[in-house]
Design a protein that fits this description.
Layout lengths: L4 E7 L6 H9 L6 E7 L6 H11 L3 E5 L5 H9 L6 E4 L5 E2 L3 H11 L4 E9 L14 E5 H9 L10 E4 H4 L11 H11 L3 E13 L15 H13 L4 H25 L2 H16 L5 H5 L3 H12 L1 H10 L6
Parallel strand pairs: 1-2, 1-4, 2-3, 6-9
Antiparallel strand pairs: 4-8, 5-9, 6-8, 7-9
Keywords: Glycosyltransferase, Transferase
GO molecular function, one term: hyaluronan synthase activity
Pfam families: Glycos_transf_2 (PF00535)
Length: 323
């Protein structure tokens, strides 16, 4: 018998896209699903759409709640989930109709705790013509997976994966954060003994111009830097990965400082400079770390020790390190 997958869908102001998302889940070839639609106080027709779908399909559960943000909505779904496996889907995206079948096949065959599929970024038209090869997989043990997260070989997003329930239980999303996935992913990966990655494109990330992830750089983007700072400290117990995390954070500080110089002004720019400099100062770089840097990285790092502001202005002038 198929094991139950709880699919948590946080919903807010997506009335134009919600039907497509729900339909893609309902029509999965893998049928044993608990579909939890979390209406996060949406002011449009989303609450009604959820209720109509609940009447159509008895696998669907609906939560109507006061608006609390994406993390709060996911957490509400987690409080009522009953599945053996858990999945999170964003409500303006959609999934291939065999995504769960392929991911469960891979997770069972390889005795894994997490399965990650490929995703395609799209404005609404599926462009992928790649041959789907379910049997071609990458297997990562815990420390390999943590290293892959830091090196971004495992994407820090939560929605192109399924998880064994026991590794996500009580690991709630941090409320009020702009990059909530980055605060969460490395912690859940550490709780897994094995991760399997498949090459199949199973998830379609819908690119919207009004999406929060596509906004021009703002002070809220510093949440991503805070997440990576916390991750660096968390990974200190893994010496090799810790060194990589420190190096990555050095250049991530430069990236955010450069973005601030380009897009922010007045109090926001002042706040950004103070926060980035505070994090940068707290990165414990030693001689062994610097040995792993490329020649160019060593130059940038040397200038940054004189002045972070100076190195970021130079990098901006020559278009280095930011788009």
């Amino acid at each position: 018998m198929e094991e139950l997958i709880s699919v948590i869908v946080p919903i807010y102001k997506v009335e134009a896209y919600l039907e497509r998302c729900i339909r893609s889940i309902v029509n999965q070839t893998y049928k044993n699903l608990e579909i939890i639609l979390v209406d996060d106080g949406s002011p449009d027709s989303c609450p009604d759409i959820c209720d109509v779908w609940k009447e159509k399909d008895d696998r669907i559960k609906v939560i109507h709640k006061k608006n609390g943000g994406l993390s709060d909505a996911r957490n509400a779904g987690m409080q009522i989930m009953t599945g053996t496996y858990i999945s999170y889907i964003d409500s303006d995206d959609w999934v291939a109709n065999d995504m769960y079948e392929k991911m469960m096949y891979a997770i069972k065959k390889n005795d894994a705790d997490i399965c990650e599929c490929q995703f395609e970024k799209t404005a609404g038209i599926v462009k992928s013509n790649k041959e789907q090869k379910t049997d071609k997989v990458t297997i990562l043990k815990k420390e390999e997976a943590l290293k892959a997260v830091v090196e971004e070989k495992i994407n820090p997003v939560v929605w192109n994966k399924i998880y064994k329930r026991e590794i996500v239980d009580q690991l709630y999303f941090e409320k009020g954060k702009y990059n909530e996935d980055e605060f969460w992913t490395y912690q859940v990966v550490e709780k897994a003994e094995k991760i399997v990655q498949i090459e199949d494109v199973g998830y379609y990330y819908f690119f919207r111009e009004d999406s929060i992830i596509n906004e021009t750089y703002s002070i809220r983007r510093l949440d991503a830097l805070e997440a990576r700072y916390q991750r660096m400290k968390y990974l200190e117990k893994y010496p090799e990965i810790y060194g990589i995390a420190k190096r990555q954070l050095v250049f991530n500080c430069m990236y955010h400082y450069q973005k601030g110089l380009r897009f922010l002004s007045d109090s926001d720019l002042k706040t950004l400079k103070l926060k980035v400099k505070a994090i940068y100062k707290d990165i414990p770089i030693d001689k062994n770390d610097i040995k792993e840097y490329t020649k160019k990285e060593k130059i940038w790092f040397s200038i940054s020790k004189i002045s972070l502001d100076l190195v970021c202005r130079i990098r901006n002038k020559f278009g280095y390190g930011v788009e």
